[in-house]
Write a structure and sequence with these properties.
The chain is α+β, with helices and mostly antiparallel strands and 153 residues long. The protein is built from 6 helices and 4 strands.
């Protein structure tokens, strides 16, 4: 995967509308996608700065919650996926803390968090997973998004 692929995914996976009921449906698709991966993954969906879906299977907990928080913070601030932020930092040889002034204790530029963007409009939330090393979280996240959009084009 590379920056161009991530930009394509961000254009492709935009929502016509997104309600709490949609968060439930997407969350369940993410949980199902995560269950196919090796190792447990925590799942979280935030809409308008409120957590509306959260799932922590056995083997996940506070450690994963901190990763989800840091990924969510980055997506909310930059309105781009955490994977895209990672690739942009890498492409520009920049450092998250020094160049972007984003402390690693509060922001995570890595795989696993995706903006919930209303089609051609604003970011209203974040879908995130945590539990596997890169690129595992991103693979699970994209599999869940893909399954959701197959039913909700």
């Amino acid at each position: 995967m590379d920056l161009e692929k991530v930009l394509q995914q961000e254009r492709e996976y935009q929502f016509r509308i997104f309600s709490h009921a949609d968060a439930w449906e997407l969350g369940n698709e993410l949980v199902a996608a995560c269950a196919e991966m090796e190792g447990p993954l925590a799942v979280e969906i935030e809409v308008n700065h409120v957590i509306v879906f959260r799932y922590y299977p056995d083997g996940t907990g506070a450690y994963h919650e901190q990763w989800l928080r840091r990924k969510r913070n980055l997506v909310n601030l930059l309105e781009k996926s955490s994977q895209r932020a990672y690739y942009e930092l890498e492409a520009s040889h920049a450092d998250q803390e020094h160049d972007w002034h984003l402390p690693r204790s509060d922001y995570a530029a890595c795989s696993g968090a995706f903006p919930i963007r209303i089609r051609d409009g604003s970011v209203i939330g974040v879908a995130a997973v945590s539990g596997l090393p890169d690129p595992g979280d991103q693979i699970a996240l994209l599999n869940g998004l893909r399954a959701y959009f197959e039913v909700h084009p």
